[in-house]
Automatic annotation (TrEMBL), chains A, B:
Residues of the HTH lacI-type domain: 8-62
Keywords for this protein: DNA-binding, Transcription, Transcription regulation
Name of this chain's protein: LacI family transcriptional regulator
Gene3D superfamilies linked: 3.40.50.2300, lambda repressor-like DNA-binding domains
Pfam families, A to Z: LacI, Peripla_BP_3
Lineage, uppermost ranks: Bacteria, Pseudomonadati, Bacteroidota, Flavobacteriia, Flavobacteriales
CDD domains hit by this protein: HTH_LacI, PBP1_LacI_sugar_binding-like
GO MF entry, a single one: transcription cis-regulatory region binding
InterPro entries on file: HTH_LacI, LacI/GalR-like_sensor, Lambda_DNA-bd_dom_sf, Peripla_BP_I
DNA sequence: CTGTTAGCGCATTCAC
DNA sequence: GTGAATGCGCTAACAG
């Protein structure tokens, strides 16, 4: 039993003032059933003695910790950090804190993290599933255990049993490609990530649909699905893609900002002029899209807002009288294209 | 009193097996003082019944939460995220989790966050002080309350009462500027941030000392201390700095990667060739220093390692028999220059 | 090896 | 208005 020094507790205050613990507790709790003069005395002595309530004891007694658990696939992705900022921003005004952990893009780790949160440490959970996550039962279990879960990004059909927030990836990609087409582009390349990941699949769908809609034949040589997980390898893949002689795109739609920047880097090195010879659109609008020369036109994803929204959904569930028959909510946020120098 | 559904507890298992709660607890706890057959029965039933230990109850009883509180000045700075990754990496192997909160560069908020952690939620605290933080008493208080605190980055003298991890900012800046000088540069510009911030002050000292050492006169027109707090305003400041006609530097040392990238952006727009006309060195080596065209030479700061180290110091304190007369440790990590295209 | 008992610090019901 | 008693779920002495 490790004890934090000689912490002051309610009992100490009670003894000093010849009051009961209950009264001291009530006095500190804004409970009206206590004389004004007593309250003042209690508050005064509490301050003098340097009293700090024990959050753990409070939690055990009250059944709530005022902590929200957040599970993201990785830390080093500005998108997730922005979402976390949004979450933090919202919940902090409701007296909650967030406990962030990373699943490191591993399903097993996601399950582990959930289990750890289920041990009563958090009142609710916000989760962004990994691309390995194909099933929903681990999440369902937590919800059944009485802990609300709200999801964002990368949601698959099976998960529609929980509230979630996402953007319309297909539509967003469609509009970016449509933008190119309307500018007269014919050879539009697509650069995405691992095909198993829902968001990349959807964006690819949007790409295909745009081409279809405008009767532009799809060319497999203009399509790249990066499989690597770090930027260095991405760079290599993208490099060799554009170095292939068969490829002569006049526009590139990339599924992340990083892909967009790496694409521009590669193209510049190859002597292309952007946007004169070729245009590029990225996806996300975080990080340094606006710093690069030329700056990168992007599909802007409302990350911060997504965090706020997902937090709002969770807090709402937490303050509902009882989660009986909670009506599942799906929120789709809008994206928009931010025009910069990489497009005409 | 909000209750999590009908959670299985030790008592339920005990009842079902006609055992005492204590025995069940011991069986689940790897305690050797329990018959093998009993242990197996208990573990089996616990699994069958879907038992999840209540972390809060455990914490109250044991006096430790296995949570480390982390306070950083802001989320949207890759440096801090990297440090957090390092912390997480280290503590997760020691069965700890991290609770991150941001002081939003405000001293008051830092104090608040500390107080909140002092309420018994965390076993130890890792803190990176804001640049507003000029005093140490709020930290001292927490330490006196028996909660170990380890600091990193932006440490001032007064704080030497706590373990901390930092880099030698002055030396790092000195070596970068020395690098320029040895390449024959004479007009070396300095771009830093708010002068109140310790790290910027130290880097400026290093800059001055390098010039001094090599008998190069310092030119006030070549020095910029950015006062803004966001990238957009930084951009404006840097822009107007280089647009001033008096300025003709042949090299620029910047105190962050972002300043470095913004500087290159500005210079490229002005028609400079990098590194032919002018060289640039950034500081940090995070984010997209290697993606930019040209890629940015940097003083590399070992952020992830810093996180690991600071976590190690904290965990060590937590596992010491008693914090009696703990010998304060100061760890200085090495930096190195990563050569890229922005320098000859 | 197992059971009994007594906390951990606070909130809350029920008396007075 | 205030106090005494009970419980939150689990750990850890102390017995046996």
């Amino acid at each position: 039993m490790g004890f934090k020094k000689n912490r002051i507790k309610l009992e100490d205050i009670a003894n000093k003032l010849n009051l009961s613990i209950a009264t001291v507790s009530r006095a500190l709790d804004q409970n009206p059933r206590v004389k004004q003069s007593t309250r003042e005395k209690v508050i005064q002595t509490a301050n003098d003695m340097g009293y700090m309530p024990n959050q753990i004891a409070k939690s055990l007694s009250s059944g709530k910790t005022n902590i929200i658990g957040v599970i993201i696939p990785r830390y080093d992705e500005p998108f997730f950090i922005e979402v976390c900022r949004g979450i933090d921003h919202y919940v902090s005004t409701h007296n909650y804190k967030i406990l962030i952990s990373s699943s490191r893009n591993s399903f097993d780790s996601e399950v582990e993290n959930l289990a750890s949160f289920e041990r009563g440490l958090v009142d609710g959970i916000i989760l962004s599933p990994t691309h390995e996550t194909k099933t929903f039962s681990h999440i369902k279990n937590v919800i059944n255990a009485g802990i609300p879960v709200v999801l964002f990004d990368n949601i698959i059909e099976e998960m529609h049993g929980a509230d979630h927030v996402l953007i319309d990836d297909k539509k967003a990609a469609f509009s970016a490609v449509e933008f190119f087409i309307k500018k007269g582009k014919k050879q539009i390349a697509f650069i995405g990530g691992a095909k198993e990941k829902k968001v990349f699949k959807d964006r690819f769908e949007g790409y295909k649909e745009a081409l279809n809609t405008y009767n532009i034949p799809m060319n497999q040589n203009l399509i790249l699905h990066c499989n690597s997980l770090d930027r260095k390898s991405d760079n290599i893949e993208i490099n060799s893609f554009f170095n292939s002689p068969q490829i002569k795109p006049d526009a590139v739609f990339t599924c992340t900002d990083n892909y967009g920047l790496l694409t521009m880097k590669t193209l510049l090195k190859l002597g292309y002029k952007i946007p004169e010879d070729i245009s590029v659109i990225g996806f996300g609008d975080l990080g340094l899209a606006d710093v690069f020369v030329p700056s990168l036109t992007c599909v802007a994803q409302p990350s911060f807002e997504m965090g706020q929204k997902v937090a709002e959904l969770l807090i709402n569930q937490l303050s509902e009288p009882e989660n009986i028959n909670h009506q599942k909510k799906v929120i789709t946020l809008d994206t928009k294209i931010i025009l910069r120098e990489s497009t005409p």
